[in-house]
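Subject: Predicted fold for Flagellar hook-length control protein FliK, 682 residues

User T.R. writes:
Posting the sequence so we have a shared reference for the thread.
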Amino acid sequence: MTIPSFQPIQNQQMNVQKSPLVLKQGQVFYGSVKQLYPNQTAEIQIGGHRLVAKLETPLKVGDAHFFQVTSTNPEAQLKVVSGPIVKDSLNVQQLMESLNLPKSQEMQQLLSHFLKNQLPIAKEQLLQAESWLKNLPEGVLKQEALQALQKLVDLKIPFTEEGFKALLFGSKTNGITKNLEQFVKLLEQNSQISPQVKANLFNAIESIAKPFQTEKAGMMIARSINILLQSEQGANSKDALNLLIQGSALKNEGLNEAKLASSELPANQASKEAKILTNGPTPRNETLNAFKEAKLLAKDSAVKTAALNILKEAAILPKEANLENWLNLLKVSSRNETAGSFISQLQFNSNPSMAQKIQQITQFIENEPNLSAQQKNAIHQLVKSFEGSNHSEQLVKQLHTELLKAYSEQTLNGIFTKEQGISPKVQLLSLLKHELAENPEIALKNIAKIFENSNEQATKAMLAESEATLLSKLNGQGMEKAIHTILKNLGLSFEAALNKNADIETMMQSLKPQLLLLVQDEHSPAELKNAAEILLARLNGMQLLSGEAGHQHQIIMQIPLHFLGKQVDATVQWNGRMNKDGKIDSDFARILFYLNLEALKETVIDMQVQNRIVTIYVYNEQKGLEVFAEPLKKTLKAGLEERNYHLSGVMFKPFAKKESLSKTMEKGNDCKTPHKGVDIRI
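User M.O. replies:
I've generated the structure tokens; pasting them so everyone works from the same file.
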């Protein structure tokens, strides 16, 4: 079943919000004579518009003709290019002969469509459009192309192939993922473009395909730090390990931490252990306890070593770091307002007294929004224990360790929650290595890439665990973050950023400017350039179709959601209006979600908001969805009520014929109460 296009809703909006008719020389249109005036002038009706124009030929009131604009200055002058026409039998052949147009099938389709919808179009535009129809991209239907051409005229967009393709692909509700995959495949196979251009394109696409890279990297760093900061399994564990190995036959068999960490000893070692337990110099119970403690220590040490190696592999810790010295090798950040810069100031500023340092620490902790009350209390207790002493160096060292522990916990516990101030994961980076906090987003993406390319089993295991945790904690805040990241990396706001003098260097790393550079390069291969042009057309189409007509507003977004092993093609269409003060009136709106889900396949969600009462229609071919949805309604209702919205109901409907669903959507859009905006939270 094909998901319906946007056309029914768009057409209706265009009928409601008509802009003034603008005629151009050479345009041809179908119109009827409504009133005759002196000097061969007449009132002509063209669709829903009326205009007064000078005629080259006397006409009769009530007759309909094809007219061609011969002049627009100082007044509109029209030439009749056909005899009187009965509206129900528009003579396409007659018009083709009058304008000397090619008698191709494409031209007949064009004229029929434009005359039926009473759209003015010039002869040159007809010839251009005919050429486009003859060379449509693979998988594009003629009817879709005709609708795009109609939008081109309706929206008064320059009649260019770029504009045509933008509206053609921008109206599609699925397939953007397929377009991206095809482009990536061609990019991988190509060796003609420069390595730097290729790398920039891959980085932009990876940021779109993996919107949770920074969260994933932050989790892995936090887990590793947590493991390294865990206390030893027992005070005498190291002595227990030495006790078991020293003075026994086991040391000759190569017993070490790795073997102790395994579940069982080899059979020959087990038998020798039995002899030691019976005849050895150490009492039996003491040896058994020693073995158990040593085994725990070995396992703990192996886990810590793996965590240490993960941080060394990502270049967060230097190569010479080990379990004993890693804390002493940290180089904290000097970036203002970070925890790392605060520790740095305490370390290298010897002027303040101990009392002043304690006051500074207390103030910093109290003003830090990302620490829990329990964590703040623990640090206050630590600081209090140093009152009256002069061991400021030891205080700063222990504070550094406590902050590492606290921000690691907050990074793990605060996934997909609203961040205040500098995020816990950025604070954690600032406490580990100063370079990482300078541009934390890029640093975390690079670290995530290192983890993903690692061949170390411990890294792979922690990566899988982190992804599973992210998926289990995914919520509305997480989805909002993912969508924001994807739209940013698609480069939809690239032109707006240029006008606002924003961070151009960062915006240039997004997909759209990279695609523009590729298509403008004359050395780019034709097939790769064509794939890039299709992606650009989708991005431009979203912007062209998003706009306003009076108070009415429409926003369209195509979002390829790929994350944590899940893949969703999503298109969101929002229709509403703004208040007089230019702000969204959140009481009224209509939002359509066109989704291509992994399990449910093609799905349309029609969400209608009337006076803050929300009604949802779900269109899908699967049976029994009501049963699965029932447990979720309570959560949905509660979430809406938190924002002062009230759920009226959730209805499930199968896709009828495409035409039937289109009518349903048109009916739903034709609300007596005017549409208004709503702050969407996905």
